[in-house]
Recover the amino acids of this structure.
């Protein structure tokens, strides 16, 4: 049903029209920001302007969880109930919200004022438990605080947010003296390019431009830098492969869709040192011969997006982006894109699809992004933290980088500590740091039950496994991988089954549905865990879970499905409850076929 | 795809395959089946269903690039750490593929188990049961038991309509996206998409009407489960009970190969039959759902004779035949043979048409035969096709880079839908498509250039194109051209024309024409497809349009070359065959000039021929060309042979009940001049008989010494002897060599869907230009300035789902049936004061006035309005003579109160 008064979005369409289909997601996001939801008439208008079939407009709009094809309240309250926030009492907080708003999760109040949702990790774990009201984050929130906040919302009183000042970035600590990646964090004004330059900013780019692109690639290769997004692929080799491709144009994409539960280090860099990310991207573009870059920022990271937008404008103004950068004939510019609530878009090819205006479904690899990436062109896609390392390598030299930390995994690394700790935040260390040291630095609040390393796609480690160093080899001895660098401390009081339920629900919610093993497997394991929560275990459940895990790991298209069973399988050691046949049917007709 | 062959090893066996082929195809060619669901050879691979996982390894290479060898000197194989999807992995030299390893069997079993855990297993009530890839692959590779918990199955309202033609059962859907990809890639009707994500994902349609595509039924064929089924076949029969009878679609000249699923004397469904040269594995929804006329209640079942009191009475065959013979003989003896005329609709089979002509010319002695009720006569395109038509051996699927398709005045999506798919495929393979049309059509989407000519300027455009090619692309001209009779006259005539005047008359700029000429001159293949609208719009200049096209093909040396030539986009399934069989007043079968030239259909129907008796077989001029009604009413004796009591039949003195296409064997010739045979699937209702039989009975009663034809086979055997072009085309020969394009025939439906495998591919007859020393004559008919009159030019547009006699009886298409409406341009709408919602207009033209709803078509050029025909009784046909006139007319707005 089209509303009588469709808002005018012609200015939005005019801005994105020339992008064609690639402008679809930005158009949908901006149109929704203006109108609250994407009515059929709005979808049709957007489809016509961008020449995208209506079915595809709707297919894209309904794919992203932050977009609504049904009316929602003027305020959307999203309470994080993910692992970290759960450990901080999000469950009782949900009851408080429900009562204060008079709305059940997933529902909109009859007066159309507010929609209440339980949301996967918002990426603001240092502020757990937290919630978002439209674009603003509130946390940590106690019962009283929440009641007061939501009471004001219900009463129509102004909310205590300051619309123009961005909230503080997460606390950051370096175990390495003044810090390397964190050297500027908290010390410079992130909105000031001059400040950035005064603190060593753009030395790396200047250094790079003195060399040939091939020499820059060589330097990054020599540094031993590996990807910081989770897969730890050698960055220099990726660049070399893209540089070698004859096809033009090439792209550099910054993966800023940081969505792994318990991870917020990229957000820190974007909020507190955004120019470093841009500088790293510019160097990457120079090295591989790209003239255009995209930064795809997670939809929930409003402050980071604003920060980066300011930085791009300032860098462009100062000649660090645009044509003939720093007087050379190197040309490069960056476009910011926002996600809209899809964890899978952190997967590189799904991210490309999303930028191209499609449903964020991963592609079959090969071909790899360096051969056929964004718009089918050779593309280097790097994580925010990876790119932030690049200026350091150029400025201080690859030898310095290589000699920092362990030989196998050199350079600084950011770890996200959250959960049952008194000092959550981003910790910088080299990778030979023992997990226990990181956890101790964050000051556990209670006895440690387990530490979830690598977020939802990661592995639960027992307290006695924490002396391992954070190197790939070290972690593999305990069956873990560092992944995104998240360390969520699960306290002794936590209900491990509930934690695991949240993780399995997360994957069932975030599976894109493209491939069957993941679409179905994520659901199956969630169903089994929920059954356990109901006290109904079956003797062969563990075997089933292993089977499901095997199918997902071996047969899924992308990392989401391939890792979706990790946490659950590693948690089984904690979940050895009594296994009893379920229901009253006994084993004869127990309904499995 | 590169032609380079590589050798791979499938389960240790060496197999040659073109580099870049995906593993599934390479293995299939080697006879090794790899199960698939989402993979389809016609669609872009997506690797979604994970069914085709196999073990893949490549020869290891040392740092120097040389293959590493083991102790025995054999190459070391480096296996990929995970199983790979065989549908997306291209083969490369030395690749090893293992499909019989235990881990592969595990993966296949596991994937099937996964899929089945959420499948409803409602095979006993599923239309797909019996030809279902999921069912068959489960039997072959699946687990015998599932260890998953039944309550976890998803439950949905089942099924939900994706429109009124196709049902979606979401419980059965396995999210393979074949249907979505078909709509996007093949049909260019992107109306399906996934909504939501993960387990909540489902197929949705966003269009009005829902699933707005003329090709929607194909999704049910390629759906690898029973998620998509048709309303038409729903719960009609189990597939194994059907007798599958090969046939040819009766609706349009594409000649799609179909199979009639017959049970208990009824058509239960129509399915495509794979023929890569004609329809690949597709048919349009008219072909699929438009069969209900065959089983319609109101079929004619007995001969009828008009009584003294004017009413019809039932008669026996001998009585009716005798009556007709006596009356015709009387007319001939009084007025001479030329007082008898014959109109044979081009829906009839070659056998019917051949005997019809033989009956008229040899038995009655009248040359008055014609079939062009729905096609402009006098353009010469029939002959031109025989000279420079699409050469034999052509296959539109072979077009690609270097190929040019020029569509002139076409609307293939509405008139020859599968041709649209073929043109689109050629374009996707790299061919250049140019659309010359006065109004927007769907094939514009495929066009590299769109030339919007002014109606009336079609011939001038083609002449201009010819002039530029002849005069500015000397290098592209064929040496043999000047040896052709008439070539010099054409050159001289064209030299006298002024390019800017031609361009001015055509409404297309000189530079655009030059650009197109450059494309023609540079192309490897040139196909020119001429639609009815081009000839109708060109009016008296239509012959020049045809002449210029023929000369262009001859001059560039494309005439006679495979994948090049002229195609007439005929109105009917056997228009080409009707021409071939000599249902033309000036030509004998096989395009031999007739000594005695008869009256054209126009002369017969206008009264100019002064006929006393008319014999009309399989045509309904009273409806299609309402102006002929007075003649049909006044003629002394009218015989009509048809399936139904048509408008024309109502005026008849004797009516013969004819058998429908499915009720008799017959051969039909497609617009690519492919002669194809159809088998009998059903018995005719009552006493209805095949058209050829009726004609033969009449001949016998005239004491003609015809051989006793027992079946259509005998008639075709005679055609194969008597008509040179059809030489040797007996039914036996038309079966051709079995070339199933899916190499794993037994399991083809897993790879390609339920389109039925085929061994009857038909035969194209060679055109004159293919001869080593071509002897045809080029013609130049001269050009006059286009007619200019006051008013709006009305262009008649045929729609796929119109109110035609056959299609009108498929009521499941009613909601999509073309509405009587006028499309007006923005300028016209503004002038008339119509809003965006359109309005009501009074349309006057061609001596007819009617009130119609108008719709705005902003892409329509000014001065043009598009009117439908065959949409509602006969008034709309009167407006444009059933699509054969593009008259100037007036549009006036009708105010609400007047309506």
């Amino acid at each position: 049903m089209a509303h009588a008064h469709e808002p005018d979005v012609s200015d939005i369409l005019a801005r994105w029209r020339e992008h064609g289909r690639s402008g679809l997601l930005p158009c949908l996001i901006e149109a929704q920001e203006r109108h609250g939801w994407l009515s059929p008439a709005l979808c049709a208008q957007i489809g016509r302007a961008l020449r995208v079939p209506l079915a595809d407009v709707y297919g894209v709009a309904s794919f992203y969880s932050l977009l609504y094809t049904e009316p929602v309240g003027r305020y959307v309250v999203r309470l994080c109930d993910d692992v970290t926030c759960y450990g901080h009492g999000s469950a009782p907080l949900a009851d408080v919200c429900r009562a204060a708003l008079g709305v059940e999760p997933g529902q909109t109040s009859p007066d159309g004022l507010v929609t209440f949702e339980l949301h996967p990790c918002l990426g603001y774990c240092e502020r757990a438990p937290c919630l978002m009201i439209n674009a603003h984050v509130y946390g940590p929130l106690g019962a009283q605080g929440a009641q007061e906040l939501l009471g004001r919302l219900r009463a129509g009183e102004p909310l205590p947010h300051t619309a123009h000042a961005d909230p503080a970035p997460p606390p950051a600590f370096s175990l390495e003296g003044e810090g390397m990646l964190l050297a500027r964090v908290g010390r410079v004004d992130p909105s000031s390019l001059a400040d950035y330059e005064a603190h060593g900013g753009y030395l790396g780019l200047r250094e790079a431009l003195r060399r040939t692109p091939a020499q820059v690639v060589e330097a990054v290769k020599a540094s031993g830098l590996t990807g910081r997004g989770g897969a730890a692929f050698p960055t220099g080799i990726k660049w070399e492969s893209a540089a070698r491709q004859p096809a033009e144009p090439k792209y550099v994409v910054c993966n800023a869709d940081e969505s792994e539960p318990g991870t917020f280090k990229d957000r820190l860099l974007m909020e507190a040192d955004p120019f470093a990310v841009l500088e790293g991207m510019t160097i990457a573009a120079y090295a591989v011969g790209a003239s255009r870059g995209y930064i795809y920022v997670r939809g929930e990271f409003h402050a980071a997006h604003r920060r980066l937008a300011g930085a791009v404008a300032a860098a462009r103004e100062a000649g660090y982006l645009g044509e003939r950068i720093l007087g050379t004939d190197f040309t490069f510019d960056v476009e910011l894109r926002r996600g809209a609530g899809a964890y899978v878009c952190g997967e590189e090819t799904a991210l490309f699809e999303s930028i191209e205006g499609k449903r964020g479904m991963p592609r079959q690899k090969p071909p790899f992004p360096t051969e056929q990436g964004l718009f089918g062109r050779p593309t280097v896609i790097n994580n925010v933290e990876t790119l932030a390392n690049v200026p350091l390598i150029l400025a201080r030299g690859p030898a310095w980088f290589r000699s920092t930390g362990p030989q196998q995994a050199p350079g600084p690394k950011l770890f996200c500590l959250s959960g049952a700790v008194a000092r959550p935040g981003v910790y910088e260390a080299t990778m030979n740091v023992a997990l226990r040291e990181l956890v101790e630095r964050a000051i556990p609040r209670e006895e440690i039950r387990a530490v979830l390393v690598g977020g939802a796609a990661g592995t639960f480690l027992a307290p006695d496994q924490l002396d391992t160093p954070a190197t790939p080899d070290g972690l593999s001895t305990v069956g873990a991988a560092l992944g995104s660098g998240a360390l969520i401390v699960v306290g002794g009081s936590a209900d491990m089954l509930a934690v695991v339920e949240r993780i399995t629900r997360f994957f069932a919610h975030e599976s894109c549905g493209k491939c069957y093993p993941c679409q179905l497997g994520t659901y199956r394991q969630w169903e089994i865990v929920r059954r356990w929560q109901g006290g109904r275990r079956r003797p062969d459940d563990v075997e089933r879970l292993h089977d499901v895990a095997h199918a997902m790991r071996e047969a899924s298209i992308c990392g989401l499905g391939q890792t979706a069973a990790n946490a659950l399988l590693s948690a089984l050691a904690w979940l050895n409850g009594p296994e009893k046949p379920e229901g009253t049917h006994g084993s004869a007709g127990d309904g499995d076929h | 795809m590169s032609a380079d062959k590589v050798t791979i090893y499938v389960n240790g066996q060496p197999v040659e395959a073109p580099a870049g082929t995906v593993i599934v195809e390479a293995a299939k060619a080697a006879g090794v089946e790899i199960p698939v669901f989402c993979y389809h050879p016609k669609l872009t691979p997506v690797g979604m269903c994970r069914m085709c996982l196999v073990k893949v390894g490549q020869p290891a290479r040392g740092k120097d690039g040389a293959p590493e060898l083991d102790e025995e000197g054999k190459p070391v194989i480096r296996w990929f750490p995970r199983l790979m999807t065989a549908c997306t992995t291209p083969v490369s030299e030395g690749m090893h593929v293992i499909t019989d390893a235990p881990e592969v069997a595990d993966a296949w079993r596991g994937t099937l188990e996964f899929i089945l855990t959420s499948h409803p297993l409602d095979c006993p009530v599923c239309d797909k049961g019996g030809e279902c890839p999921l069912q068959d692959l489960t039997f072959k590779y699946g687990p015998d038991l599932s260890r998953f918990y039944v309550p976890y199955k998803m439950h949905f309202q089942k099924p939900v309509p994706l429109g009124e033609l196709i049902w979606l059962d979401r419980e059965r859907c396995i999210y393979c996206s074949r249907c979505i990809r078909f709509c996007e890639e093949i049909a260019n009707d992107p109306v399906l998409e996934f909504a939501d994500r993960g387990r909540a994902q489902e197929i949705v349609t966003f269009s009005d009407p829902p699933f707005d595509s003329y090709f929607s039924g194909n999704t049910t064929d390629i759906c690898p489960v029973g998620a998509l089924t048709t309303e038409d076949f729903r719960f009609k029969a189990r597939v194994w009970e059907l007798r599958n009878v090969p046939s040819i679609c009766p609706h349009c000249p594409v000649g799609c190969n179909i199979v009639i699923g017959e049970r208990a004397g009824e058509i239960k469904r129509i399915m495509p039959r794979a023929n890569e040269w004609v329809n690949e594995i597709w048919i349009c929804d008219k072909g699929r759902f438009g069969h209900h006329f065959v089983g319609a209640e109101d079929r004619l079942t007995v001969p009828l004779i008009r009584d003294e009191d004017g009413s019809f009475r039932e008669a026996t065959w001998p009585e009716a035949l005798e009556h007709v013979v006596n009356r015709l003989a009387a007319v001939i003896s009084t007025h001479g043979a030329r007082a008898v005329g014959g109109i044979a609709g081009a829906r009839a089979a070659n056998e019917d048409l051949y005997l019809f002509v033989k009956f008229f010319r040899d038995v009655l002695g009248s040359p008055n035969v014609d079939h062009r009720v729905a096609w402009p006569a006098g353009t010469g395109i029939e002959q031109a096709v025989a000279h420079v038509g699409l050469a034999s051996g052509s296959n539109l699927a072979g077009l690609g880079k270097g190929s040019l398709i020029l569509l002139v005045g076409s609307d293939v999506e509405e008139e020859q839908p599968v041709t649209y798919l073929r043109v689109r495929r050629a374009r996707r393979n790299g061919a250049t498509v140019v659309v010359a049309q006065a109004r927007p059509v769907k094939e514009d989407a495929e066009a590299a250039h769109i030339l919007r000519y002014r109606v009336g300027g079609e011939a001038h455009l083609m002449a201009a194109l010819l002039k530029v090619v002849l005069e500015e692309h000397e290098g592209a001209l064929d040496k043999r051209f000047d040896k052709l009779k008439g070539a010099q006259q054409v050159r001289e005539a064209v030299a006298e024309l002024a390019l800017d005047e031609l361009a001015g008359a055509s409404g297309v700029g000189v530079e655009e024409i030059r650009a197109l000429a450059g494309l023609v001159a540079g192309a490897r293949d040139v196909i020119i497809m001429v639609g009815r609208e081009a000839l109708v719009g060109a009016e008296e200049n239509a012959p020049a349009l045809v002449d210029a096209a023929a000369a262009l093909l001859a001059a560039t040396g494309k005439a006679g070359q495979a994948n090049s030539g002229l195609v007439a986009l005929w109105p009917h399934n056997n228009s080409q065959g009707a021409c071939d069989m000599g249902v033309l007043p000036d030509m004998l079968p096989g395009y031999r000039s007739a000594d005695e030239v008869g009256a054209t259909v126009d002369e017969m129907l206008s009264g100019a021929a002064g006929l006393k008796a008319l014999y009309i077989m399989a045509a309904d001029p009273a409806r299609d060309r309402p102006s002929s009604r007075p003649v049909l009413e006044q003629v002394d004796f009218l015989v009509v042979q048809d399936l139904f009591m048509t408008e024309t039949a109502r005026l008849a003195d004797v009516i013969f009940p004819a058998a429908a296409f499915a009720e008799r064997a017959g051969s039909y010739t497609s617009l690519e001049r492919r002669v194809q045979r159809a088998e009998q699937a059903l018995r005719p209702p009552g006493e209805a008989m095949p058209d050829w039989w009726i004609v033969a009975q009449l001949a016998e009663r005239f004491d003609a010494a015809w051989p006793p034809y027992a079946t259509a086979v005998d008639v075709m055997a005679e055609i194969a002897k008597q008509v040179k072009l059809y030489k040797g085309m007996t039914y036996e020969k038309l079966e051709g060599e079995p070339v199933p394009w899916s190499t794993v025939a037994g399991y083809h439906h897993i790879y390609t869907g339920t389109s039925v495998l085929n061994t009857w591919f038909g035969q194209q007859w060679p055109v004159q230009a293919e001869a080593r020393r071509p002897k045809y004559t080029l013609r130049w008919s001269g050009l006059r300035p286009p007619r200019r009159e006051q008013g709006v030019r009305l262009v008649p547009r045929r729609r796929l789902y119109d109110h035609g006699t056959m299609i009108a009886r498929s009521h499941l298409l009613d909601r999509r049936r073309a509405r009587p409406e006028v499309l007006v341009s923005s300028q016209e709408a503004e002038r008339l004061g119509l809003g965006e919602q359109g309005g009501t207009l009074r349309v006057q033209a061609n001596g007819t006035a009617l009130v119609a709803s108008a719709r705005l078509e902003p892409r329509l050029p000014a001065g043009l309005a598009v009117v439908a025909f065959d949409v509602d009784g006969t008034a709309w046909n009167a407006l444009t003579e059933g699509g054969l006139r593009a008259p100037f007319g007036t549009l006036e707005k009708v105010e609400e109160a007047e309506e």
